[in-house]
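Lab notebook, bench 4. The sequencing result for the construct came back, and we need a structural model before the next group meeting so we can plan mutations. Quick request posted to the team channel:

Model the 3D structure of this chain.
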Amino acid sequence: MANKIIMTSEDIRRTLARIAHEIIEQNRATDSLILVGVQTRGVPLARRLAQNIGKFEGLKVPIGALDIYPYRDDLAGLDLEAVIHRTAIPGTVDGKSVILVDDVLFTGRSVRAAMDALIDHGRPRSIQLAVLIDRGHRELPIRADYVGKNMPSSRHEEIQVRLVETDGVDEVALISTVEKQSFSELGKAG
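Done. Here's the predicted structure in token form:
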């Protein structure tokens, strides 16, 4: 499998600083703002965004963690005991501007599950979406409000976000999952 680094640690740092500035611009009433990371890598990204907002604006933005697995539409065959994470929402989401934070936006199904999970905790004034990578291939009418990098990809590629908090390194890799065929296999396929 081919592995190409598409974002370095410095790229991620600059991108999160830019997204934090965009969030501040779009949410003048930052006192009602909550950042909620989608488990697993959305949580450290939400923390980093909150740190940036705090540094730029001098305020502390509450951070939550959201487990979406019970809300997914592809649970058949999944071992729920192996994938259940913790949901921790600070206070109430009622009347708040909630920014869901995730690492990669792909089909939109995870975001749909995240919105369902969030609504079970109350009625936010608004829900916005911030993602580090948008790779396209939407199956639902969902788009991100804040995008770190648009990275069109084929379905035969995988985008892996690796973060220091979860993986020991900050980088985003594009991985080709298509193995090269030998010339003899190509001849048989034709």
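The helical segments are 9-26, 42-57, 80-83, 109-119, 164-167, 183-189.
Will bring this to the meeting.
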